[in-house]
């Protein structure tokens, strides 16, 4: 495992301890920060909230810290990066929610889950509209 990948893995383990109590880790509420279930097909992955290239001072870990990270699954992480390409404001809204979760340093409260649900609805609509535009070409 590369040094960077190992660091991201260590941070994910720390984030899991902070944000997911054991009773949640073993329940149907074990969701990533986009509301997707963590499963063997959607394993945890680390998302840099602020891009490494935009960080003022890069450290040896390429900006991988708990404060700059979001706990996503591999599938939702792919969707997020797709959204980044087609709707920057929506991508920024997701990152804002991730920052809120980090500031709370606990499992997301109901208000945050409502924000996540809203963003998921917007995300689905945005992807569908983008796909429709592509097929009309």
Report on this structure.
There is one protein chain. With 137 residues, this protein is mainly α. The chain has five helices and two strands. It has helices at 3-19, 22-25, 74-86, 88-104, 110-136, and strands spanning 44-48, 69-73. It has a two-stranded antiparallel sheet with strand order 1-2. Helix 3 (74-86) packs across helix 4 (88-104). 19% of the residues are buried. The model has no long low-confidence stretch (mean pLDDT 88).
Keyphrases for this structure?
137 residues; mainly alpha; 57% helix; 7% strand; 5 helices; single chain
Query: Can you summarize the main beta sheet?
Result: 2 strands, antiparallel
What low-confidence regions span 5 or more consecutive residues with pLDDT below 50? none
- CA radius of gyration: 15 Å
Strand line-up of the largest beta sheet: 1-2
Class by SSE composition: mainly alpha
Task: State the end-to-end CA separation.
Answer: 43 Å
Helix fraction by DSSP (H/I, runs of at least 4): 55-70%
Average pLDDT confidence is: 88
Order of helices and strands: HHEEHHH
């Amino acid at each position: 495992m590369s040094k960077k990948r190992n660091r991201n893995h260590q941070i994910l383990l720390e984030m899991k301890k902070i944000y997911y109590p054991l009773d949640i880790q073993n329940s149907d509420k074990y969701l990533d920060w986009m509301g997707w279930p963590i499963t063997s097909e959607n394993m945890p992955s680390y998302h840099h909230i602020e891009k490494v290239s935009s960080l003022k001072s890069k450290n040896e870990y390429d900006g991988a810290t708990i404060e700059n990270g979001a706990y996503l699954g591999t599938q939702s992480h792919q969707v997020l990066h797709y959204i980044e390409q087609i709707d920057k404001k929506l991508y920024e809204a997701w990152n804002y929610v991730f920052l809120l979760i980090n500031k709370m340093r606990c499992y997301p409260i109901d208000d945050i889950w409502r924000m996540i649900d809203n963003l998921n609805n917007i995300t689905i609509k945005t992807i569908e509209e983008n796909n429709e535009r592509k097929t009309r070409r």
